[in-house]
Model the fold of this input.
Amino acid sequence: QVRLVESGGGLVQAGESLRLSCTASGISFSANAGGWYRQAPGKQRELVALQSRGGNTVYDDSVKGRFTISRDNAKNAVYLQMNSLKPEDTADYYCNVRTIASTDYWGQGTQVTVSS
Done:
């Protein structure tokens, strides 16, 4: 059974930083693509950052230079370091694993609120 558990969300002021963590059981991040998505109220879920099996990374333009995705294979975890946070980064953030067969698994989400 696949389980993804996110942590690290919270309420911060604009310009501050947060680090989101996602640990997995039942599936390996190193063998699949892992990523972070977010969904703001009234909006569709969108990709924030993605890391392929090979370690290549992709970022949404809105977070380039501010957010960094990383992976710890020994801990079977992925992280999202978020710096210089803006109010528009406010959303529920979801950890994702996509298998080679394009099956998606999701965490329960962690809320990030950035006040101005």
Remarks:
- The chain has a mean pLDDT of 96.
